[in-house]
Write a structure and sequence with these properties.
Order of helices and strands of chain A: HEHHEHHEHEEHEEHEHHEHEHHHHHH
Distance between the termini of chain A: 23 Å
Oligomer: homotetramer
Number of domains of chain A: 2
CATH topology of the largest domain in chain A: TIM Barrel
Structural class of chain A: alpha/beta
Largest interface: A-B, 97 and 97 residues
Radius of gyration of chain A: 23 Å
Chain lengths: 394, 394, 394, 394
């Protein structure tokens, strides 16, 4: 059971774990905790030993909601000591706006204006904490922003409240001079029956309505896209294409269209994880790779690190090797090039509109029957990529 | 079996039918046509008699792809005569970029630049035809823009080609002086395994990347949203909220997360159709209401009009009555008001960011426990809306 | 906000609530309890006052897993006193084989034989408790019987262990002379990634492998069927058709293919609830109608009864009125009869196989073209049923 | 692009292709044929050259519905000549009860008794044809047996008609002395909104209601299970466990909960295909392995064989190699054994019920806390199986 990769090899990537992920004790809607867990500082030490570079946290993952100042100082002291010892950082901070019952009908979008105000208060404090800990990314996952009963709130009202809250907080961050980027995380449902901003597409659109869109990006999560049955590679590509995926992404696993499973990255869908890693390589992504997953309930406290945390990182690294092979596989590259062969002159005609271009385009003798006769060897390429994935082209 | 509403009552709405909808002869992946169908001009006459206001069409719904000029003139003559006779218009035009095998790997996003050029050619002609017929809306449904094999094309390449095509065509329309708005229609899959721009959110984001976003809106379709398991009311609300749903929408029915069913509007999901109509009423929507559905294969040629087409319109009108009742139901209105009670002063604090506002917000004595104790009568409201829907509050 | 029906009217039905349903305090995977809840005996009193006839329970809903004998006696005393006071009964009992971490990899199907033995021990005690309380139905919901990792256990091993456990317990019940019927409840996933016996069909098949199939029925649940995207009316009909739905059924609501929502019966899908009630009426079902749902997290402790519990019952009763209307609607009945017109002689030929029947069948001059020309007014019937549902045919 | 396996290696397996699979010309609900296709005899020759052992067919795949006797003889002659030449057989036959519009509301379950009679007529002829061609398996896929409108037919009526039809045909086959096994193929939806017998579980239950259950098995299909979001390995395991999967199975690929995609086996879900092949190996399955898939619309006529048909077989063979590795991997085997360690004495106690066994079981000192402390290395096993799949444990 020796590991495939060393801590040093893992350390070369920007691997991050949420405190809540290795901290998950296996509680679920139908069952109690199945393991004990460890205090935050211990999680840092275990992760550091394995080769992770960073942790992420919600305010209350570290500091309980009603901790005294002394308790706060104590926890922070231990935590930052462990971080320094492991040469790790806090990559991302967030605010828990979902656990307390005050958020049972939303936080930024709650119909009750006092709840919205409380959500702002709490978030400003969480931003301050994040800044204090050096986090350069602040994530918004609006798990309670949604509805079960469409009669009870106009969703447009919800969007508007959401927009105002993010606008307010952007200005707060600028005002404080924090070097912080926001990242919005979509999810279609659970814990609400329908969550606002259900997809990466919706978040990308939402960002364009903000006062400071340049401060706000996407935090896409594999499982959340699959919960809508969509193709995560396509969704994330759109974020990359709109230059909104530079700082943070959540990696995990999920069977499509089920409850939120947050499986270990790579454990369920080799094609999906291969293209995910390929996308990061192709776009030279340098943001955090946050494994937002949790171990199975059958996994022990030590297994959480030895098998689960290490497994996430190694599954990523195995796929990265496959991506390098893909780029060097002559036959695969030839097929890809053949399928995607361009035509510079024709492209130029389509790129820059002019009346003249219209005229030329109209005159082009393009016979659909003849065009359709061209063979497209996509099926052959598909076969070879599977062989590569299975280690049959080494 | 007498109808609930008269043609005159239906005529008061902007009801539109695609030629392909009443023209659907029941062919499906596993079966042949189950009825004969009627020529386009007959469809117009039947729809006019029932009270529809407009038809919509793809170029090839009316003019076969290789019709001669004479055949074209002939068909157009008959068709426009019937329209005039029925006092109907062409509300929307579109271009069929999916049927011919030349589009088997995409049209605007095909990897083959010649296919992309052919798609532009064909679409310019379809736009000209639409303009000639007086259509003020031109819809883009990119049914073939997508993939089965993610290895074969970089989706970002696809998005970029898509963007260039729409940019080109926007300029074409402006150049020709056509009074035409574009509307993009999302769909998550079928006939491709994954279609680009799968959701309304993705389309709204895409529009912001265009050179002329002001010319482009959303054409949301009930079934397509449900094929991704999302809440169509929420999705459409976002389009309304971003002012991108003014000219056209597709109404139909669909069981979530199945093959594209295109059922009769209102036939499957009373809550969904109620909130859809309520949204249109609340936003004073004045664009086309296009029933993009088709009759069951068991329905006869006459049933297509008598039961299917009339049914779509009447289901809409029944829901419109329910919406009026909702607005007048004292108890429902009181519950809604109680749940959504605002706080002008507090709202003002959150609306306009300032350092002072931050200070005041921070100081507000908001106790989450106390806020959480407030009763929210959402469940009671839910009960009453069901009673209203079932006709038990008349 | 006065109720549609009186407690007396509700009492005429066999309405049952699980202690865990009205006892649900709104805890979910992402949030704490949102209300306080009431002790079991109080739940009984509240339910009785509303007109419910019975409660259902898991052993640990009533008696905590490590209660002393004295605590047990105390709780039972209060509980049975309240039942008597309200003239209510315990309709169904069950055993909690999912909450404790010992069941994290299954109970009857756990790979560890000691866990399987413990599950049998615990279930025998729960059966004894059920018998003591007069429950005539004992339900098996195998929430933990399943897997996340298919490599870790052969599912056939799981089925075999499951079969042996039910066989053992059937014999135990017979041996004790308890007048008790078992009912197996399917679910496709959650809390396990894949649960064994995921559908009503799978349970019906499983029952036929048992030593005492005559003692075992189905406990179908709306939400669980919809979590597999199936038609609950069809699934339940199969159970009725195989005479395996006589004693118990779970009614609730659910958006298809999402996390387990357990919404109020009737609150989400009027067509689904109409056909559910119609099926019960048509089959003269006299078993328990168990509302296995929970109130929204936004609902208060009093709202749980006033709006949620009453709502379940009233939604059922509203649908029952619609079913009566359906049976009396001349036009609907005529359409149904026309569509389903039989042919006694022809049927007889198909019912009893003989060489002679084969000969006659072969000779029958059946022209598919002519048969296909017959009009089927299914679309018209569909319209009228919607009108009926919406109260437009009163 | 040379192949991984030789025709001889493929020939060692019982690989079968439906005539309709390689014969698929790429027609879909939104598009015309994208390739020409080949006559049946040519398909046989191409498949034979690649190493397939058998073909499967519906009556009308070979003989058009209104062929003359002369045409029939002609087609049969060419076809059987090619089979002999290639040393291939017809593994399975079926009857097309879905294409003609006469079946628009069902075949065996149509409300119209004349349609049911016609379905029996047609099926008897198809059985005769299958017998003539030597097919030992006859498959029933009830694609049109279902509904869009639940008001129009009682599903129990549908089940009853279905049962009678299969009973009739079982007796017919016995009477004719054909050495033929029936296999029923489930599907949840498409082309009907809801199809009766939607899952393997439902079919297994249905079979137990028949007069000759010993003649009837399951024909499970990967895509059909995934269209209900279920785990195909679990579903098929239940069929094996009930001894109902000995003669035929359909292998392909499918993204869960979408339109029927029928992708190439192994092309989409490496874990799924690995466990499928492992199951066949473990159960020493000797029935037909029917690739019920079709090539992408982008694939040419030659690509259908070179890339698609060969790909199906090679993907199976690659997985078979992995299964052998799994069985020989010491660490994987040790982990599996540790997780599944039995206890003969304890098992014996649970296997044979007796009052004494109950007594002993009751007395067993089983402490759930202690049992729950045992480590289960399922997560470690999961990691190693992924490594094996990716070729990292060679």
């Amino acid at each position: 059971m020796s590991s495939l990769y060393t801590p040093q090899q893992r350390r070369a990537e920007r691997f991050e774990f949420g405190l809540w992920t290795v901290g998950n004790v296996g509680r679920d809607p139908f069952g109690e905790a199945s393991r004990e867990g460890m205090p935050p500082w211990r999680r840092v030490e275990e992760l550091g030993a394995l080769g992770a570079s960073a942790v992420a946290l919600h305010d209350n993952d570290l500091i309980p909601m009603n901790a005294t100042q002394a308790e706060r100082d104590d926890i922070l002291g231990q935590f930052t000591t462990s971080l320094r010892k492991q040469d790790m950082v806090v990559g991302m901070a967030s605010c828990n706006l979902f656990y307390h019952r005050v958020f049972r009908d939303g936080a930024f979008t709650a119909s009750d204006p006092k709840v919205r105000a409380f959500a702002l208060q709490k978030t400003m404090k969480a931003i301050d904490l994040g800044a204090e800990l050096g986090a350069k990314v602040f994530v918004f996952w609006g798990g309670r922003e949604g509805a079960e009963v469409d009669a009870a709130r106009d969703p447009a009202q919800g969007f508007e409240h959401y927009r105002k809250a993010i606008n307010f907080l952007c200005k707060y961050v600028k005002d404080q001079g924090y070097p912080m980027t926001f990242a919005i995380e979509p999810k279609p449902n659970e814990p609400r029956s329908d969550i606002y901003l259900p997809t990466i597409g919706a978040c990308l659109a939402f960002i364009t309505t903000l006062d400071h869109p340049e401060m706000v990006e996407i935090n896409g999560e594999t499982a959340h896209t699959k919960m809508a049955g969509l193709n995560h590679y396509h969704e994330m590509k759109m974020a990359f294409w709109m230059n909104k995926c530079n700082v943070h992404q959540d990696l995990n696993g999920q069977k499509p269209l089920r409850y939120d499973q947050d499986f270990k990255f790579g454990s369920d869908d080799p094609f999906g994880s291969f293209f995910h890693v390929k996308m990061n390589v192709d776009h030279e992504y340098t943001g955090w790779l946050n494994f937002d997953a949790h171990a199975h309930r059958t996994t022990s406290d030590m297994g959480v690190y030895r098998d689960f945390a290490a497994g996430n990182m190694d599954n990523y690294l195995m796929m990265k090797e496959k991506v390098a092979q893909f780029d060097e596989d002559r036959s695969i590259q030839d097929l890809y090039a053949e399928i995607n062969a361009g035509d510079v002159k024709l492209q130029a005609l389509m790129d820059a509109y002019s009346a003249a271009a219209v005229g030329k385009l109209r005159e082009l003798p393009l016979d659909p029957e003849k065009l359709a006769d061209r063979e497209l060897k996509i099926e052959a390429l598909e076969n070879q990529v599977l062989q590569l994935l299975l280690g049959k082209r080494d």
